[in-house]
Design a protein that fits this description.
The protein is mainly alpha-helical. It is built from 29 helices and five strands.
């Protein structure tokens, strides 16, 4: 109740301030100081389009409609403000008799952020037709648009124009060029341009690190971050958010912990964005205890915070805990769930086999929160029903979807048909997939396995032969990243698990030397991608382990690709906590 009271008090105070601001607009033509300065002052304090239109009306009344400085500020608000309106900016622009380069640049900048960025080039063309000189800001805005739209050739042409005009050394142009080539996935060009900068500032470092991350060069991103610190460049919030995303992608828990210590030392740990990135990193690296420490210690949570924590639990096999956390979020009524929240919780229901709760959340999303389900939400429902064996019901759900079903959802249903041996429905689903993606390797494999699960080996072989004749190749399988950690104490109670079969994309068989600690934590010590080994000595020497059987360097694996566990002869199945085994993942 106290929180609600202060929220209402804050809202009323804001409304009072807004009303006072609007009442002062009418006094613009009565103040004793320069009316132009007064208008500019009001434009700087403007917060919404409604206020801007009132100020603009006063601008017209005072005869400033052709004053390029005043009208330029009006257009700046429309182009740069969060709640701006480029349609209104166009109407103001068209009434200016002789717009200067600043106004054209503002229009180009505004359209670069709007829904139709290509219009920025129309204003650049009009700018050239008027004989106005393009400056560094013009090219920076245009290069951003090229990166946005993926216009590689045009981006390079504009790059040539900056070279001809000698603007390539300007800080805005230079940084934008590095970022543009990064969006083109041309990391070599980005790196070359960055290396040509004599003394790169923090913004340039942030851009090149982000380019490496966006291009999937995560190790190089970590190297660039370390190099930045050697040059005594202090990172900011943007740096930490980007570098933590690289740690998440690699499962680099130790590096992520080191970054966390840097954040604590510098003092950026109080912001929600940085805490969300830390939470995401710990969750994806499998350190759920540390993720919960971050989550519980956050004073300012948002919807992204809850989404990340729920996803972390669901991804590591804690589906029930994920649903409970989602229920807590709804009960507190401080954060409204969005479409991603429901996508995450439906995924948790899928992994946990919770069909009834899945339906309840699906209807809750539509009726109470008025969020229209997307194809991804319907895909989660198909997965929930398919995993639980309700393949016919999943097929009916697809038939009543308000949008056209894509290949991913059909493929999800085909996998369910294979799992439950429904050959006839699998054939119908395969026909749908042939119309959408006729040469996708997974479809052939799933259908062949569906026949095989029903004992129809001739049909399975026929599908395999068809796949071979059409030249359909299976994609490259996933790989594993091994990271060492401090050794375990020899006196800790351990259980050795043998004969672990890894399923990662294709059916590769490998040994995994692992120890199961008592309690909730599961340590997987190695997962070498090799053929089946014959002896314990071979396993130790080829798996990235060091030491003897009592002192082993454990390896923590992230949750990107799952693998299953089979216990060999002589082991007791009832000693294994299978919920903990579900936490085993491969990067």
């Amino acid at each position: 109740m106290i929180i609600n009271y202060f929220c209402r008090l804050k809202s009323n105070l804001k409304a009072l301030q807004l009303g006072s601001f609007r009442s002062r607009i009418s006094t613009i033509n009565t103040v004793s100081i320069s009316k132009e300065e007064t208008v500019i002052s009001f434009l700087k304090n403007c917060s919404c389009m409604k206020d801007l239109k009132q100020i603009h009306a006063r601008v017209i009344q005072l005869g400033f409609e052709q004053n390029r400085f005043v009208v330029g500020k009006v257009i700046v608000f429309c182009a740069a403000a969060e709640h701006g309106d480029m349609n209104y900016a166009v109407s103001v622009f068209e009434k200016i008799g002789d717009p200067d380069a600043f106004i054209f640049n503002t229009m180009i900048r505004g359209f670069g952020k709007a829904n139709d960025p290509r219009k920025a080039f129309d204003y650049y063309k009009r700018m050239q037709e008027r004989g106005l000189v393009s400056d560094s800001f013009t090219f920076s805005f245009l290069l951003k648009v090229c990166g946005q739209l993926g216009l590689v050739l045009l981006g390079r042409l504009i790059h040539c124009s900056t070279l001809k005009r000698g603007l390539n050394s300007h800080v805005f142009v230079r940084n934008t060029l590095v970022h543009m080539y990064g969006t083109f996935k041309d990391i070599e060009a980005s790196r070359q341009l960055f290396e040509e900068i004599p003394d790169p500032e923090l913004v340039a470092w942030n851009i090149i690190i982000d380019c490496h991350v966006s291009c999937g060069k995560f190790h190089e991103a970590l190297d660039m971050f370390s190099r930045m610190l050697k040059f005594c460049i202090e990172p900011d919030e943007a740096t930490f958010v980007v570098i933590l995303s690289a740690c998440s992608a690699l499962g680099a828990l130790d590096f992520g912990r080191w970054v966390h210590s840097c954040i604590s030392n510098i003092g950026h740990g109080c912001t929600t964005e940085v805490n969300n990135s830390l939470l995401d990193m710990y969750a994806k690296c499998g350190a759920l205890e540390e993720a919960f420490e971050i989550f519980n210690g956050m004073n300012k949570k948002n919807t992204v915070t809850w989404n990340t924590m729920i996803l972390g639990l669901a991804s590591h096999g804690y589906a029930n805990e994920a649903v409970v956390l989602f229920s807590n979020m709804l009960e507190q009524k401080l954060w409204a769930p969005d479409d991603i929240t429901f996508l995450v919780v439906l995924s948790a229901c899928s992994h946990g086999g919770m069909v009834d709760k899945g339906w309840r959340f699906f209807y809750l999303m539509k009726k109470e929160y008025h969020i229209q389900p997307t194809i991804k939400h319907y895909g989660c429902m198909v997965d929930i029903l398919g995993r639980a064996g309700f393949v016919e019901e999943a097929y009916r759900l697809i038939s009543i979807m308000p949008m056209q079903c894509n290949a991913i959802v059909w493929r999800t249903l085909l996998a369910a048909c294979r799992l439950h041996g429904n050959v006839e429905l699998g054939k119908q689903v395969r026909k749908q997939l042939l119309e959408l993606e006729p040469d996708h390797s997974s479809d052939y494999v799933l259908l062949a396995n569906t026949y095989a699960s029903a004992g129809r080996w001739n049909e399975a072989m026929r599908v395999r032969k068809t796949m071979h004749k059409r030249g359909v190749q299976k994609p490259e399988p996933g790989n594993s990243v091994v990271g060492r950690h401090p050794s375990l104490r020899s006196d800790e109670p351990l259980l050795r698990i043998w004969n672990i079969i890894l399923l990662a994309g294709s059916r590769w068989v490998a040994w995994c030397y692992a120890h199961l600690l008592t309690g909730r934590r599961f340590w997987c010590l190695s997962a070498p991608w090799r053929s089946l080994l014959n002896s314990e000595s071979d396993l130790g020497s080829n798996s990235g382990l060091s030491g003897n059987g009592e002192n082993v360097y454990p390896v923590r694996l992230s949750y990107q690709l799952r693998f299953k566990v089979r216990i060999g002869a002589g082991q007791q199945l009832d000693l294994i906590n299978w919920k903990q085994c579900r936490m085993l993942y491969v990067v």
